[in-house]
């Protein structure tokens, strides 16, 4: 397998390095050492990821494009954690809400890179004094490219000093079409029968809502435009993933023109679907100016706020405990 690295812009007067792997089929994986950004996943010469034209277009917007987010994913209401019976206030970055780890989460830092034969590991010590979360976290994410053209992301966290939380994800935007104008003609299937009810700040309130016979029903492969028409707005919601085994994908995204099909495998119980309705022409992508529905983010992570709503599971990471989570993406046409 080939590997290479090159400078890909700069951030805060520091060069950003792009690391790439390419297998025998010509499938290519590229990541950046800033924010762990997944910059390229090219299959038969086509980048499956929504690709900003320059590095600045990855950072000059609020959409977390391609970034690794954590320590936690999703929204924490009133920026308050409940851990071991104690309420902990953490920094806000969306009104009174902590979103995707807050203003100084993993998404806002450079990571150290190590290149292996078919993988790239990005790592850092995420310190409590930086992001306001309890304890320091020894964090890494390993991107692996396989000869069958699939990619896996393995997150690993070891909690230091004291108990904390760990619920990261990849905020990658997908567009499988040749022109990448939008994803409205893509079809989506999700292993889910319900989603979370959200309050007026898009924070879960602990209640479930059934998907059936609504714009949230993706139990069968459904054109995204069909459900957006039912809802009369874009999607930015948390789907509850049904129980499943390792061989069952939690979501399947398909471009009906090219027949490219992406299957996502995850052990986690939540999937945030964001159809990127707010993207506009202030952003520039390789294939032109930004527009609503340019891409779709499929953010696999455990349901948010489990400390407040135990029915959602748990994201607690005890002192000296190590947790590992692997997401796998398989492409075919």
Structure commentary:
It contains three helices and 30 strands. It has a single domain, classed as Beta-galactosidase, Chain A, domain 5 (Distorted Sandwich). The chain has a nine-stranded antiparallel beta sheet. It is mainly β and 333 residues long. The chain starts with a strand and ends with a strand. The protein is globular.
What keywords describe this structure?
30 strands, 3 helices, 9-stranded antiparallel beta sheet, 333 residues, mainly beta, 6-stranded antiparallel beta sheet, Beta-galactosidase, Chain A, domain 5
Could you give the topology of this structure?
Layout: E1 2-11, E2 14-22, E3 28-32, E4 38-43, E5 46-47, H1 56-59, E6 68-69, E7 75-76, E8 80-83, E9 86-89, E10 98-99, E11 112-115, E12 119-126, H2 128-131, E13 136-145, E14 151-160, E15 164-165, E16 169-170, E17 173-174, E18 186-190, E19 192-198, E20 204-210, E21 222-223, H3 224-231, E22 236-241, E23 251-255, E24 261-265, E25 270-274, E26 284-285, E27 288-289, E28 296-301, E29 316-317, E30 322-332
Antiparallel strand pairs: 1-2, 2-3, 3-4, 4-5, 6-16, 7-10, 8-9, 11-12, 12-13, 13-14, 14-30, 15-29, 17-28, 18-21, 18-23, 19-20, 19-22, 22-25, 23-24, 24-30, 25-28, 26-27
């Amino acid at each position: 397998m080939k590997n290479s690295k090159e400078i890909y812009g700069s951030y805060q007067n520091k060069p950003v390095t792009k690391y790439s792997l390419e297998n025998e089929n010509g499938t290519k994986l590229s990541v950046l050492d800033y924010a762990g950004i997944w910059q390229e996943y090219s299959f038969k010469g086509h980048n499956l990821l929504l690709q900003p034209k320059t590095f600045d277009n990855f950072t000059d917007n609020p959409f977390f494009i391609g970034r690794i987010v954590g320590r936690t994913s999703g929204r924490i209401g009133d920026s308050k954690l409940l851990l071991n019976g104690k309420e902990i206030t953490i920094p806000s970055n969306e009104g009174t809400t902590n979103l995707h780890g807050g203003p100084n989460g993993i998404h806002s830092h450079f990571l150290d890179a190590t290149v292996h034969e078919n993988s790239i590991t990005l790592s850092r010590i995420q310190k409590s004094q930086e992001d306001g979360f309890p304890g320091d976290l020894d964090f890494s994410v390993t991107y692996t490219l396989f000869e069958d053209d699939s990619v896996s992301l393995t997150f690993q966290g070891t909690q230091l000093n004291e108990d904390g939380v760990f619920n990261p994800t990849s905020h990658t935007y997908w567009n499988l079409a040749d022109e990448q104008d939008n994803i409205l003609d893509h079809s989506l299937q999700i292993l889910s029968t319900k989603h979370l009810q959200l309050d007026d700040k898009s924070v879960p309130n602990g209640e479930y809502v059934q998907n059936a016979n609504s714009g949230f029903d993706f139990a069968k492969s459904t054109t995204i435009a069909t459900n957006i028409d039912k809802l009369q707005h874009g999607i930015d919601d948390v789907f509850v993933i049904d129980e499943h085994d390792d061989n069952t994908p939690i979501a399947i995204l398909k471009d009906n023109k090219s027949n490219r099909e992406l299957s996502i495998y995850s052990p986690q119980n939540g999937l945030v679907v964001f159809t990127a309705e707010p993207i506009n022409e202030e952003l520039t992508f390789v294939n032109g100016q930004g527009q609503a529905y340019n891409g779709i983010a499929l953010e696999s992570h455990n349901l948010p706020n489990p400390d407040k709503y135990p029915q959602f599971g748990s994201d607690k990471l005890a002192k000296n405990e190590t947790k590992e989570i692997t997401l796998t993406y398989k492409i075919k046409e």
